[in-house]
Amino acid sequence: MASYKRILLKLSGEALMGDQQFGIQPDMIDHFGDEIKDIVDAGYEVAVVIGGGNIFRGLQASNLGIDRVQGDYMGMLATVINGMALQGVLEKRGINTRLMSAVPIEQVCEPYIKRRAVRHLEKGRVIIMAAGTGNPFFTTDTAAALRAVEIGADALLKGTSVDGIYTADPKKDASATKYQNISYQEVIVKELKVMDQTAFTLCKENSLPIIVFSIKEKGNILKILSGEKIGTLVQ
């Protein structure tokens, strides 16, 4: 596996719920903080994009009779809340952190500016990029792919509840087998649900490797960066 120096870590909001139905479970946000601290201490430059599905998803809006665009902005604000929580646990661990938002909220975070984000990384700060792309109709997966390309990340690490990409949903199909490596083309042909199509196309067009792994396993991120074959590599 190639060596990576600057990575973008995509964390789902749902993972923050732990075994709850909603919100942020203290054990999970602490786990995220510990995992990120380990890789920062090891000398890696770390950017994080976090979802908001533990609080609100834009797609829920129609069920509430709310316009999709309005719902998507609500989802963006949910990611800012998660970003603030993650910043809090990282700073408690002594990690210099900047929260940057694609939707300006001056009282709580910086606006996302590409050059400023890169400068923070160069100075050893962790950057948390919230509010998705700042536009409705785009997922936080797309935001992760876009930001990774913008800041010149060497890889996009997508932490999920599953330990990689399978031939079918392993929760529904006991015969599903895991891919160790897979090409972008195979993912497209087999219609595997790695990310949404926009996010995936961005990674493919910019030759950005994607590693899908279980965020629940302690030490996984550092193991991946140390060269261990954890999860599934898409390139």
Q: Any overview of this molecule?
A:
This protein is an alpha/beta fold and 235 residues long. It has helices spanning 26-41, 68-92, 114-122, 140-150, 184-190, 197-205, 220-225, and strands spanning 6-11, 45-50, 97-101, 110-111, 126-130, 155-160, 181-182, 210-214, 232-234. A nine-stranded mixed sheet has the order 4-3-5-2-1-6-8-9-7, with helices on both faces. Helix 4 (140-150) packs parallel to helix 6 (197-205). The mean pLDDT is 93.
- The proportion of residues in beta strands is 15-25%
| Uncertain stretches | none
| Strand elements, count | 9
Structural class: alpha/beta
- Along the chain, the helix and strand elements come as EHEHEEHEHEEHHEHE
Distance between the termini: 11 Å
Spatial order of the strands in the main sheet?
4-3-5-2-1-6-8-9-7
| Mean model confidence by pLDDT | 93
Summarize this structure as a short list of keywords or feature phrases.
single chain; 235 residues; alpha/beta; nine-stranded mixed sheet; 7 helices; 9 strands; globular
SSE diagram, text form:
Blueprint (H helix, E strand, L loop, with lengths): L5 E6 L14 H16 L3 E6 L17 H25 L4 E5 L8 E2 L2 H9 L3 E5 L9 H11 L4 E6 L20 E2 L1 H7 L6 H9 L4 E5 L5 H6 L6 E3 L1
Helix pairs in contact: 1-2, 4-6
At a glance:
This protein has 235 residues and is α/β, with parallel strands linked by helices. The chain has 7 helices and 9 strands; from the N terminus they run βαβαββαβαββααβαβ.
